[in-house]
Amino acid sequence: MTAVSQDPDSHPDPRTAAALERWRMILGAPASGYGSLAGENAARDAALDWLYGRDEDLARRGVRKGGAGSADPSKGPGGSGDSVLTTVDWLEGITKLFPKETVDRLTRDAVDRYQIHDIVTDPKVLERVEPSPVLLKAVLRTKHLMDPKVLELARKLVAAVIEELMRKLATEVRTAFSGARLRRPSQVRLARNFDVKRTLRGNLGHYQPQERKLYIEDAHFFTRSRRHVDNWQVILLVDQSGSMLSSVIHSAVTAACLWGLPGVRTHLVAFDTAVVDLTSDVTDPVELLMKVQLGGGTDISGAIRYASELVANPRRTIVVLISDLYEGGSEAGLLRGARSLIEQGCRFLALCALDEEAAPAFDRDMAERLAALGAYVGAMTPGELAAFVAEAVNS
């Protein structure tokens, strides 16, 4: 086999060059000795460095130099001095350089990981930013920092996100509640109301084995009247601590979608160390969320006591406690209140998460103790909760 030598002055394999560029992008500035970037890749690298270059852990390990990035993503990388790039410039740059999924991830890291609050407190940024659940959470966390003008812009962002969440959940709620109908005998003979099963059962005596035919003398029909339901109460108790923010948002949307359904009376109660009944604002989830005060301690037993005062008919009541179950008040009081509601006949749900991901983090010991009392303990999406309510109401 004859070895083939390669002219060192020849052009590199494009595939190799592309692979090196990808690794250079992954490793960032520390890998700059292995090749340079140009064009959009240089701008992408600069945008990433503006955000992740402020990671103190990387600075301590000597992986990156200094604090807040080093370049304008629209012009490529620069020196290691202080950045003159504003959040507005950075946001405008990444929306041009990356796909939407990446922009959402970068925005989430900027808000959650690096606490870059001007993404939701700077009116110039709010005017440009695309509404998303990530930014909705950021607005709710920082709304106390906003002046009236910024707050009005933020409210529009909240409204846009809530409208989309409402649209999705309203479809699931309609589906869950649409099948509740009774079939009652009717003298009105319409083909669409033909009762096949009852007709077959009622005419089995007219079956002719030799002919293998069933002769129908009496045809039966039914009415498609909607099932009558007794009034049910659904009491949502929502822990408004910061860790439960996603569940707070989805609780507000769920309450709004359940509001006004036939046979269902909805209450929404938020709590930390105090209890606030937000039922009067259920029809306007945007206004409701703008009133929520995140943080503080947690007194679950106090919320359960308040719920017990709202119960009119225990056997027609669903109490939904949405909390991570880390009790800051009386654990004995929490368990005593839950036991009382369950023994009276209430259906008691302890949901450690109510959101689209339904990924809970919670006090497992308390969850086990509530389950032993007869509570349903778990996590649900809003659609699953709506289906649970529909099944109970129509049973």
Number of E strands: 10
Name given to the CATH architecture of the largest domain: 3-Layer(aba) Sandwich
Within the largest sheet, what's the order of strands?
A: 7-6-5-8-9-10
Q: Could you give a short account of the major beta sheet?
A: 6 strands, mixed
User: What is the H/E order?
Assistant: HHHHHHHHHEHEEEEHEEHHEHEHEH
Fraction of residues in helices? 40-55%
Rg from Cα? 30 Å
Q: What do we call the CATH topology of the largest domain?
A: Rossmann fold
Main structural class:
alpha/beta
The CATH H-level homologous superfamily of the largest domain: von Willebrand factor, type A domain
**Oligomeric composition of the shown chains:** single chain
Strand content: 5-15%
Unreliable segments (pLDDT under 50, ≥5 consecutive)? 1-10, 65-83
User: Structurally, how many domains make up the residues?
Assistant: 3
Terminal Cα span: 81 Å
Protein name: VWA domain-containing protein
Organism: Catenulispora pinistramenti
Pfam family, one: VWA_CoxE
InterPro entries: LolB, Uncharacterised_CoxE, VWF_A, vWFA_dom_sf
Short description:
The chain is an alpha/beta fold and about 400 residues long.
Detailed description of the structure:
Residues 231-390 form the VWFA domain. Helix 2 packs across helix 4, helix 9 (148-177) crosses helix 16 (382-393) and helix 11 runs parallel beside helix 16. The protein has a 6-stranded mixed beta sheet with strand order 7-6-5-8-9-10, sandwiched between helices. Strands 1-4 form a two-stranded antiparallel ribbon. A two-stranded antiparallel sheet has the order 2-3. It folds into 3 domains: 37-116, no CATH class; 181-226, no CATH class; 232-393, Rossmann fold, CATH 3.40.50. Helices cover 46% and strands 14% of the residues. Residues 1-10 and 65-83 have low confidence and may be disordered. With 395 residues, it is an alpha/beta fold.
